[in-house]
Amino acid sequence: MGIRDKLVIIFFILIIIPMFVLWARWQETSVGSTKSVLRRSLAERAHEISNQIEASLRLQEGQVVELSRQAGLQVYVRELSQNAQATPDGSLRIDLSAFMLANQNLYSELIGVNREGRPIFKIEVRPGPNGVIRPFYQEGQISDGTGLPELVREAGAGTAPVVFSEIEQSGSDSRFRIISPLRIEGGRIAGALVITARASRLFPETATSPARAQESQGDYSHPQAIIATPQGVVLHAAEESKRARPLREAFPGFGGALEARGGSTERDTDASPWFVHQLFRDASPRMSILVVENYSSAISQLEFDSYVLLLMTFLLVIVAMLSIYFLISGTTDSIRQVTRGARAIASGNLGYNIEVRSRDETKVLAEAFNRMAGRLREMIRKEGEQKQFESFARLS
User: Fold this and answer.
1) pLDDT at 70
2) How far apart are the C-alpha atoms of 65 and 162, rounded to whole Å?
3) What tens digit of pLDDT does each residue of 216-254 get?
4) Given this model, what pLDDT does residue 18 score?
5) From CA 341, how far away is CA 336, in angstroms rounded?
6) Contact present, 382 and 350 (Cβ < 8 Å)
7) Euclidean distance between CA atoms 62 and 162, whole angstroms
8) In this structure, what DSSP letter does residue 13 have?
9) How high is the pLDDT of residue 218?
10) pTM of structure
11) 3-state helix, strand and coil shares in percent for the chain, rounded to the nearest 5
């Protein structure tokens, strides 16, 4: 095997192979770093949404507490403690109706119940016959009273001024109830205000405008928020068609990879190409906050850049290898000429002249062989002349 071949093999082993190994390691590290950054980003977004929901609940709690402390309502509570079927007077009706009208975007109805949880009156905000939204007051047979006794009993058993129920799904709409126990002196409960709140208003910052929702349908290359019940039913998503459907059905790409809550309050799920951060909210109303992002575009771009880098590096290595190959070709050719000449001289061809064009050590070596051959020729010539002289001397 020639020197050039050996040098090419050494170059391949020491340069090319380590380059591929380092490139593969770099790509793996880059993908891992990208996912780590994505994980932190989605976790921060999930906590941000959780804080927004908590702030909305605290706002609603403050509004209901302020309402329950009104003087007119306190008078009604004393009447209710004596008469379980007492109804509010005109002034209180106006105050309660004004509260509901002012907060129509947050609340849909208010129900007054007695200590047993039986509805006494109801104020509902909805469009009238002329299309104008206004409050409607109702007494007597009141619908939508299902589950009220249990809610009132639970609220009365505690000391909190306001209790939130779990979120209920009604078609594409979702709601929860805010129960404010009405107590008299001594802490005994005389009744309660049960306000039905619109669950969609809990996450105003995560809601997507219709135009943006249309643009983002099926595209999760940017973080998207999904709110679901603990049972896995979608409460909120950018696409309205996904709401009120099971996660597995609404999001088949990654919904099936999401598990029911175990012992942790947070979970990361890598359902390639989707990455999901799931944050569970324990307090009522309980819910699961999911922030989803499709990282395929980021990974694809990273892989494209890595392949471009690999190609450029490979081309540079090829250029460097060819340059080295041609640089050493002169030296190896000179060595080959010296070797051929040395063999010729060793075989007795002392007239062989080694010609080397390079100006490195091989030229010095070639000149040394040429001088050696010349001296050998001279020595042989002199030895021949000496023998010839001695022959003539013996004959004479």
Assistant:
1) 92
2) 7
3) 444 445 788 899 888 888 888 888 888 888 888 888 877
4) 77
5) 9
6) no
7) 9
8) I
9) 47
10) 0.69
11) 50, 20, 25
Can you tell me the distance from the alpha carbon of 217 to that of 209, in angstroms, rounded to the nearest whole number? 12
Question: Identity (one letter) of the amino acid at 209?
Answer: S
pLDDT at 93: 94
**37-to-86, 219, 278, 285 alpha-carbon distances in Å:** 60, 20, 16, 31
Residues 6 or more apart from 197 whose CB is under 8 A from it?
60, 106, 107, 108, 175, 176, 177, 178
Closest listed residue to residue 196, CA positions, set 107, 135, 311: 107
CB-based contacts of 102, cutoff 8 Å, min separation 6:
none
At residue 208, the pLDDT reads 44
pLDDT in the model for residue 213: 39
* Lookup: tokens for 319: 């250029």
Q: What is the dihedral of CA 306, 312, 315, 317, to 10 degrees?
A: -80
CB contact set of 156 (below 8 Å; sequence gap of 6+): 115, 181, 189, 192
CA-to-CA distance for 110 and 177, rounded, in angstroms? 9
Whose tokens are 């979120």? That residue is 167
Residue 248: in which H helix or E strand, if any? helix 247-250
Residues with Cβ within 8 Å of 379's Cβ and at least 6 positions away in sequence, in order, are: none
Question: What single letter denotes the amino acid at residue 243?
Answer: R
Token couple for 336 = 């080959």
Tokens 């049972």 identify what position?
A: 231
Low-confidence ranges of the chain (pLDDT < 50): 206-220
